[in-house]
Amino acid sequence: MGTDILPAVLDDARKKIVKFRDRGMGEQNTKASLIEPVLEALGWDIRDPDEVHREFRANSKDSPVDYALKLLRKPQLFLEAKGLGEDLSDRKWIAQVLGYATVAGVEWCVLTDGDRYRFFNATAAVDAEEKLFREARISEDDPNETAGTLSLISRRNLEDKQLDVLWENHFSDRRVKIALQAILTGEHPGLIRLLRKSIPALKPKQISDSLARLDVSINLMEIDLPQPPARSGQKDPSSTANAGGPPTQCETAHDDRAKKASAEIKALYDELHRFVLGLGQDITENHRKWYIGYERKGSFFSCQIQPRSQRICCWLALNPPSVKADPGFARDVSEIGHAGPGNLEVAVSSRDDLEKAKPLIAQSYRESQ
């Protein structure tokens, strides 16, 4: 059994999550009904303890972790399960799974309630809050993105060390981003000298003062995750074939999601689209693989229709700590994997949401000049 059945398994899991979300399932039912079918769809033989070892202990005195995924009988990843609906942001759960992995010398661990999956690099030499690498939520996120994220822990991808490759890129990109932000927001003499060579008419103090006034944001580009094969009769959204000419592949993927959305979400998207383009004549609209981006001199806004959760997920090029928004409406995703560029995420599922989002989008547009 391989990842070709993953979309169907995730669709079934999504239905169960909606059905049992309010009344809960308990940990054991969550494992049997939600987690183990996903592991099996990811290519793991859940009936072979040499591959999927339940209640694994590295040493007899250690506390057991729910699942150890093994290659050649050696643990490669720990997965700790909680009952559906448990708060996976609780520090005690995070510390628990990180502790299991650290003691056993296992690099990767996952914390899940069967709906939300959080990936951690336990052995990375960074603070605990920086160990979170990616997360996905079956009930709310785009199905293709969810499948791509979960496919990172498929048997094949663990053999190919896909997580290690992506983490190396992620770790390097974050460090470079932090260093660039420090250079751009501080009085870095090397940067001032470099700019003076390009703009000899300006004095060093003028350049320094200008840098202090500028609000420069740096957004990481998306990293394509492995996508599971399409089911029989289903169009593969990652195909590059375009025999019929325009629209492009990216537009087709977006149109496919839009067709599955409710009439209300379609109307909200149309209004959102008109609003963004109406902000100025200098806006360029770009259709990417999993989102639509809007650029001025740089990307200031991107969005993705998510038909299953009946919302439009939006990302803005704003500094999250500096943004004033209603509690719970906007969240900082600068340290979390997400589809489009932008560190502030808002979800639009109603006209009230759209009205709250408009001032933030306009602010992002103004600050992008």
Structure report:
By secondary structure, the chain is an alpha+beta fold. The protein folds into 3 domains: 158 residues, tt1808, chain A; 47 residues, no CATH class; 119 residues. Helix content is 40%, strand content 18%. The strands form 2 sheets. A 6-stranded mixed beta sheet has the order 1-2-3-4-5-6, with helices on both faces. Helix 3 links the parallel strand 3 and strand 4. Helix 1 packs antiparallel against helix 2. The longest helix has 24 residues. The protein is globular. The chain starts with 5 loop residues before the first helix and ends with a helix.
Question: What's the arrangement of secondary structure elements?
Answer:
Layout: H1 6-20, H2 26-41, E1 52-56, E2 65-71, E3 74-81, H3 91-104, E4 108-112, E5 116-121, E6 132-137, H4 143-150, H5 155-159, H6 162-185, H7 189-198, H8 204-213, H9 249-260, H10 263-277, E7 284-287, E8 292-295, E9 299-306, E10 311-316, E11 330-332, E12 344-348, H11 351-367
Parallel strand pairs: 3-4
Antiparallel strand pairs: 1-2, 2-3, 4-5, 5-6, 7-8, 8-9, 9-10, 10-12, 11-12
Helix pairs in contact: 1-2, 10-11
Give the helix level as a range of percent.
25-40%
CATH topology of the largest domain: tt1808, chain A
Largest sheet: 6 strands, mixed
Task: Based on the coordinates given, report the CATH architecture of the largest domain.
Answer: Alpha-Beta Complex
Class from secondary-structure proportions: alpha+beta
Strand order of the largest sheet: 1-2-3-4-5-6
Stretches where pLDDT is under 50 for at least 5 consecutive residues are 221-252
Q: What sort of overall outline do the alpha carbons produce when their principal axes are compared? A: globular
Distance between the termini: 51 Å
Number of strands: 12
Counting DSSP H or I runs of 4 or more residues, the number of helices is 11
Averaged pLDDT = 83
Radius of gyration from CA coordinates: 22 Å
Number of domains: 3
Portion in beta strands: 15-25%
- For the record, the CATH class of the largest domain is Alpha Beta
